[in-house]
Amino acid sequence: MKRHIEALLWLTLIGAALVWSFSWLQLDLIGLLRHDSLRQMGDYAGSFFPPDTSPAWLRQIFKGALETLAISAIGTLLAALAGAGLSLLAAGRLGQLAKALSRLLLNALRSVPELVWAALMVLAAGLGPFAGTLALALHTAGVLGRLFAEALENAPAEPARALRQAGAGPLAAFCYGTLPGVLTQWLSYTLYRWENNIRMAAVLGFVGAGGLGQMLYFTLSLFQQSRAASVILAMLVLVLLVDALSAWLRNRLG
Amino acid sequence: MSIRLDGVGLTHANGYQALQQIDLTITRGERVAIIGPSGAGKTSLLRLLGTGLMPSAGQLRILDEQPASLGRGALRRLRARIGLIHQSPPLPPRQRVVTAVLAGRLGQWSLLRALVSLCYPLDAAGARAALEPLDLEDKLFARCDQLSGGQLQRVGIARVLYQQADLLLADEPVSAMDPVLAEHTLGLLSRVAGQRGLTLVASLHAVDLALRHFPRVIGLRDGQVLFDLPAAEVGQRHLAQLYSNDSLAEHAAPLPATEPLPAERMPRRCT
After folding, report:
1. Which structural domains are found in chain B, ordered by start?
2. Is A254 an interface residue toward B (CB < 8 Å)?
3. Would you call A167 and B103 a contact, using CB atoms and an 8 Å cutoff?
4. How far is B102 from chain A (nearest CA, A)?
5. CA B168/CA B157 separation, integer angstroms
6. Over chain B (271 residues), what is each successive 10-residue block's mean pLDDT?
7. Could you say which residues from 85 to 124 on chain B have a Cβ atom under 8 Å away from some Cβ of chain A?
8. What is the rounded CA–CA span in Å between residue B4 and residue B19?
9. Please, what are the domains in chain A?
10. What's CA A121's distance to the chain center, in Å?
């Protein structure tokens, strides 16, 4: 009985909070469903069709798609390299101080979202693909660094220790003893992040960081819906292609 | 002279005295088995010989060097001459056999050579030559996780052979194997060591294997050498003393009821 009353109390509180939120944000849900607003939405959606397929525009889209692909690929590659270096520190291979500092750095890199990094990098490096690449590299380095470090910590220590015991140097022992155990995991994490980053690269253009996203932003701002439609289609195809490629590669690794 | 211990003692960080007053000389090309009950200090002794631990008392000389007084570089060079055979070979599962074998010479290679060889095996012929006496040359490019336990163990031995170690140490090399495989592997190990004139020191649980494959047997108990005899002179009296109070029932089985003739010490339990 007591539990019922408690549940009722919580439900009432949640309901009240919900109603209050709607009135505070002045959300007009009923206005959304009115006849003329439905018609307006339909008109707007209709204006996207047919997509612009003029050769000149398609050529531009192709260029933009290549740019987005390059931003995501280079961003992920840089992130993987930086992440690998930082993960060695973060797994405690070079002392406790380096471990604590690199973990702090990784957390900082990771907790700032790509879009915020992109806005900052546009200020630092100017409009264009360079800013987008840096933004992806910074955030992804934080993510991959942590995942790589976890893989390192879970890797068996025995193979590398045995090589050290036979006179191998620390770096050689790492490459022959530890790396084979973590490399496929590292690669598969990197490919997975690449899938995420190609989607993110398409969005980063909205803050001026180049690629298809920037084209989408311009065309939408200029009310060129049919051109925007072909950009959206191009994004879709690009993301599907990269997903398929990455999934196939990860499958082959596994 | 391969190994010389003068009054060597080893006390672990927690105060446990693993070895005390060990005097031992093992000459080049000798094959020695170390037997004794669990906790007798077999593994500590082998780790000491492998320079993984340093003695807390006495003098230890290995391959004419004193590991305790060596600098980092010299210690690495000494370690490159000592081959350690593990109970379960610590090989990364995804590594190819050729790379796993070539890793044996990392102590002699420059870092650059090691890194290049990681991408493209520089001395595949050498790895094949090391695998050949172990009947594994057809597995050169197989991945380690495609091999059986016995094959992996042989890859581990091939790595030590490729290392061109002067001293082979083996810590319970066959304790995880079935009797037939254990017999085969030990036979192989001591044959290869004999052919190349290598010094071989192995700790073993199975007394009969030790007596059959090694000319010299050292009995270790409570961190001290109880006996150090040619295999032919190790009798039931020695073994009874070595394993006394130590759950007699467990070790009574392999021992013959009466003192056997010198020519045939032990019943062949495993065959």
Report:
1. 1-81+167-271 (3.40.50.300), 88-165 (no CATH)
2. no
3. no
4. 10
5. 10
6. 85 85 89 88 88 87 86 88 86 89 87 86 86 83 85 87 89 80 84 87 88 90 88 83 65 45 42 37
7. 86, 90-95, 99, 103-104, 106-109, 111, 114-115, 118
8. 15
9. 55-253 (1.10.3720.10)
10. 16
